[in-house]
Fold this sequence. Notes:
- With about 300 residues, the protein is an alpha+beta fold.
- The protein folds into three domains: about 1-110, Helix Hairpins; about 130-180, Roll (SH3 type barrels), CATH 2.30.30.60; about 185-270, 2-Layer Sandwich (Alpha-Beta Plaits).
- About 55% of the residues lie in helices and about 15% in strands.
- The chain contains seven helices and eight strands.
- The strands form two sheets. It has a five-stranded antiparallel β-sheet.
- Strand 3 and strand 4 (about 165) form a beta hairpin.
- It is rod-shaped.
Amino acid sequence: MIILLQSSTEAIQKSLNNYYEGFLSILPRIALALLVVVLGVLIAQLLTNFYRRKFLKQSDDPLMSKFLTQAVKLVLIIVAIMFALRIAGLDGLAAGLLTAVGGSAIILGFAFQDIGKNFLAGIILAFNRPFHINDTIKIDDIFGKVKALSFRYSHIKTFDGRDIFIPNSDVLTKPVENYTADGFYRLDFVVGIGYEDDIESAKKVIQKVLDENEDIVKDVEHENYVIEDNLAASTVNLKVFFWVYTVDYRKASMILRGLIIRKVKEALAAKDFNLPSDIIELKLYKNASEIPFKLNKADENEISTK
């Protein structure tokens, strides 16, 4: 019995010595592998910082620059880890690690579907999307300027000062109206003149206002014009169309439009054109003892009795 215990103890000690000697023999390779991983991460960080600056200087697309730099960093780190495992003699572990990462990605994909969906949408938008930074867009009822892009959200700054972060999956699947894609946008408004006024003369007055304004686009592709819109109750309505530059959409769509409306009104008034409001006609019949309704003073522009 004693001899059996001694032989077992000697076998265990021999095995431990063999493991220890084996560990000492591969220790330099493990240390070298760890050094490779550390150096790989540092080199990946330095290279991505360098390329980020290069991309940002040469590209006006920050999302694409961010995607490319992050992709370069991730690839370099993976290469460093695989190379380190090979140096350490753990090729089998490298293959198992790749298999485990793939399986974990599938499990996490089901667990975090929304996050994964927005991330994939962000990757798609990095290569193909309907807007860029500082474009004025509208998604559903959200209207504003694009301030930032990430792999999960698109940051929209509305003109009343709200910061809205729209999930990229919504940006990818919902209609996007881009008001500044080509730098031009057409505005319009309606002005009403009296039935007794000459329509063609009024159109010439309005057209002159459009032609003399330097902020309105004037070229072959973008025509500014005035047309008869409809015959209203008290006015002949003319519709004015004109093109503006949309580098600063808020200035073009609000300030410039208001300025043109004021100039048109002043020009028509200076030429003695009438700009009547709606006329309300009140009829009094002989057998009517009283008026069946009352008019607000604000609506009583002209009362004609018969």
